[in-house]
């Protein structure tokens, strides 16, 4: 999962859409080559599991054909309950000794049979007497669920990452964080919210929570007796005959409160387990970042700076090839795909 490679297309298979981003190295850093988004029908992907593989493969092929993407090599990512990320402390040892010991150590921290997971690890910090090791385990059937779809689409999965690390990668490259500042990165998709708490470029804590934008849509549908399409339109700032602004705001607020409660619980748990670490800023991405009023609610609730993470802050956009206004409109949804595309280069 931490492997580096060349010329990869970042491919993010979410619950509501498939997103692809292609980057190239430029003299000043990175340049956007192509990007694409294809919407998925409801229940095509549920809680990160691909339920209708042919439909997803078809959307992947559609993006590659439309954007004329030639490379077949992709970096994709997974999230949810089948993904475990843990920081563990081990006695100081050589890399060879660590390689021999890691499975035994992992089996104490991972709630799955070790034979059923793909395991990866990275040494984060070393002191005179101990190692701080980041363990990542993903159930093999979860990875197969994604790689089989890619094979159907004629693509080669060179890297399988996890959403939280792709999110962090995108943030690091674009914002060059202060090594001492602790920031919470929230990627709020349709059904899953990825939370990554980082200090500079060091991952401190990650959690995937089963809440997201679909809960807003569901609430609007039920409360106002609307179709899915009309509820989606209202959620993203549109209007509907017979629905007042007060009604919409009240329903959106009730769902935002559920979301904020999950974030608060995560922050409380982090503070209880990471002594002396104080979160200073929140960066938000994912399609749900644009729900009216959410960022202001986060500012009020947590009393800190909250901003939308822009994945192309340090990526050159050629105006002859791309409409920057359209790109900014889609930007929050392209963060994970951009973080994955950056795996082509020598980034952490």
Describe this protein's structure:
The chain is of the alpha/beta class and 348 residues long. It has a single domain, classed as ATPase, nucleotide binding domain (Nucleotidyltransferase, domain 5, 2-Layer Sandwich), CATH 3.30.420.40. The chain contains ten helices and 16 strands. The strands form four sheets. A six-stranded mixed beta sheet has the order 10-6-1-2-3-16, sandwiched between helices. Helix 5 packs across helix 6 and helix 5 runs antiparallel to helix 7. The longest helix has 29 residues.
In short:
With 348 residues, the chain is α/β, with parallel strands linked by helices. Helices cover 36% and strands 31% of the residues.
Uncertain segments are 1-5
The tally of domains stands at 1
**Tally of individual helices:** 10
Adjacency order of strands in the biggest sheet: 10-6-1-2-3-16
* Arithmetic mean pLDDT: 93
Helical percentage: 25-40%
How can the largest sheet be summarized?
6 strands, mixed
Structural class: alpha/beta
Give the total of beta strands.
Answer: 16
In terms of quaternary structure, the protein is single chain
The CATH topology is Nucleotidyltransferase, domain 5
């Amino acid at each position: 999962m931490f492997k580096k490679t060349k010329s990869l297309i970042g491919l993010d298979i979410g619950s509501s859409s498939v997103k692809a981003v292609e980057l190239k190295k430029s003299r000043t850093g990175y340049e956007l080559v192509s990007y694409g988004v294809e919407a998925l029908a409801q229940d095509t992907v549920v809680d990160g599991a691909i339920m209708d593989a042919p439909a997803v493969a078809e959307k992947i092929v559609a993006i590659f054909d439309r954007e004329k993407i030639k490379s077949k090599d992709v970096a994709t990512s997974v999230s949810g309950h089948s993904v475990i990320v843990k920081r563990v402390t081990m006695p100081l040892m050589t890399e060879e000794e660590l390689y021999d010991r890691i499975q035994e150590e992992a089996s104490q921290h991972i709630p799955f049979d070790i034979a059923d997971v793909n395991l990866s690890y990275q040494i984060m910090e070393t002191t005179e007497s101990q190692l701080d090791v980041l363990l990542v385990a993903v159930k093999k059937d979860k990875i197969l669920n994604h790689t089989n779809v890619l094979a159907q689409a004629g693509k080669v999965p060179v890297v399988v990452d996890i959403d939280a690390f792709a999110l962090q990668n995108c943030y690091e490259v674009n914002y060059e964080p202060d090594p001492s500042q602790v920031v919470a990165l929230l990627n709020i998709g349709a059904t899953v919210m990825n939370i990554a708490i980082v200090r500079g470029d060091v991952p401190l804590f990650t959690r995937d929570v089963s809440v997201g934008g679909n809960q807003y849509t569901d609430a609007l549908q039920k409360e106002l007796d609307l179709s899915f399409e009309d509820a989606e339109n209202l959620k993203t700032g549109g209007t509907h005959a017979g629905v007042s602004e007060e009604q919409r705001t009240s329903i959106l607020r009730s769902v935002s409160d559920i979301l904020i409660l999950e974030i608060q619980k995560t922050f409380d748990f982090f503070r209880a387990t990471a002594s002396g670490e104080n979160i200073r800023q929140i960066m938000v991405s994912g399609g749900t970042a644009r729900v009216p009023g959410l960022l202001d609610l986060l500012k009020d609730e947590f009393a800190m700076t909250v901003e939308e993470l822009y994945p192309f802050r340090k990526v050159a956009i050629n105006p002859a090839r791309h409409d920057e206004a359209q790109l900014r409109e889609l930007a929050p949804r392209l963060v994970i795909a951009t973080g994955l595309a950056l795996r082509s280069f020598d980034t952490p």
